[in-house]
């Protein structure tokens, strides 16, 4: 593992090694011919080469610190998979919300269930989303008014919000057939699909669909 990381590190310098090498190949003969007259050029070329290498390393570190053999997904791609019908402007807005969070902070992302909306109405759906945005907060929202991308400080807070909403808005959750007897007016469809996304690095995320998030288990 250590050897692989060392090799990967030095591979970052490859585009600039040849540049530096060619520079010094030109510098050495010039120094031999012109003597001290070539020293300012040699010094300037050395600074330029080193600055370019440093810039490349910093850029690589910023944009790929969490990339590990493709284990994670660009945040924009993840959001497009969750919201396949969203416009580019909407995706950019959601991506900005994620980018402002600390690394590894969890997000709950809800895509609407049209069957639930047809049953209860769009206003009722917005009410549920507002509850997810404000539950446990005072004069604040955790969704930047998106009503679909909810930022939590940790997994415990996310779970507490889910449980609180389940207690108050039971019709938001799907009641499986095995529990219909104890919930005679139980909901046949959930309010939406729940996705969990965690920010990993600047532009990448780990995400998955939680198929049971809106299910009542007892």
List keywords for this structure.
single chain, about 220 residues, alpha+beta, 2 domains, 5-stranded antiparallel beta sheet, rod-shaped
Can you walk me through this structure?
With 218 residues, the protein is of the alpha+beta class. It has two domains: 2-64; 73-210, no CATH class. It has eight helices and five strands, in the order αααβααβααβαββ. A five-stranded antiparallel sheet has the order 1-5-4-2-3, with helices on both faces. Helix 4 (75-82) crosses helix 5. The protein is rod-shaped. Keywords: Membrane, Transmembrane, Transmembrane helix. The chain crosses the membrane at residues 7-27, 33-55.
Brief description of this entry?
Helices cover about 50% and strands about 15% of the residues.
What is the averaged pLDDT score?
Answer: 81
Strand content: 5-15%
- Can you write the helix and strand succession as a string? HHHEHHEHHEHEE
Q: Tell me the domain tally.
A: 2
**Structural class designation:** alpha+beta
Low-confidence stretches: 4-12
Helix content: 40-55%
Span between N and C termini? 46 Å
Rg calculated over all Cα atoms: 27 Å
* Largest β-sheet summary: 5 strands, antiparallel
Query: What is the count of DSSP helices, taking H or I runs of 4+ residues?
Result: 8
Q: How does the overall form come out from the CA principal axes?
A: rod-shaped
Work out the number of β strands. Answer: 5
Transmembrane segments: 7-27, 33-55
Keywords: Membrane, Transmembrane, Transmembrane helix
